[in-house]
Write a structure and sequence with these properties.
- It is built from eight helices and nine strands.
- It is α/β, with parallel strands linked by helices.
- The strands form two sheets. It has a seven-stranded mixed sheet with strand order 3-4-5-6-9-8-7. The protein has a two-stranded antiparallel sheet with strand order 1-2.
- Strand 5, helix 5 and strand 6 form a beta-alpha-beta unit.
- Helix 2 packs parallel to helix 3.
Amino acid sequence: MLYSFQPESLNRKTGPIPTTYAHRDTCPPSCGQYRTSCYAEDFYTRMAWSKVALDLDALCAKIEALPDATMWRYGVAGDLPGQGETVDAYALGQIVRANRRKRGFAFSHKHSPEAIRWIRHAVEWGFTVNLSADDAGQADVLAETGLPVACLVPMDTPQRSSTPAGRPIVVCPAQTRDTTCKDCQLCSRPNRTVIVGFRAHGTKARRADGLARRVIPIVQA
């Protein structure tokens, strides 16, 4: 698999933190947005995604060279190492090792029992991987693992709502106020008690919105 590394993101919502991209073959076809409504298919993100050229060793060297306590994001586009639904445990382990004393975080649509097992190990060793859900109902299922969860929510979802099982959802603060990942850091916290909701966005937002509306978050009156 190939990757790319940006020492400082130019994305307004992400803020100036290091980011990476992973080859699109890492994306699992089971993802509800697979090659359809994914924001990564937007023009500028897709252009950056197409420039993956680093091998695993080169990527890990760049991660390892980051100053201690640096927060960085793995996989602005793409998923954890491994073809499709699988997780390449060796490659993930190398990234986790490179992340020692750093504060890397990621998102993954790989939900098989084997994937969950490796993701759990990564989180325990300090690399925060958020399980990505396509609606609030799936968020409840994934939350049963005890791992951090993020989910797609409809475009009109208020700042605070909940899943059908009553788990609190907080819409990504960068979508509700003037902040960035660099300042917010919510998704990098593995032991948080809330699910982070991402309102459907990008040029394919309406299609993604329809996916999120299969289970609409509950808003207390």
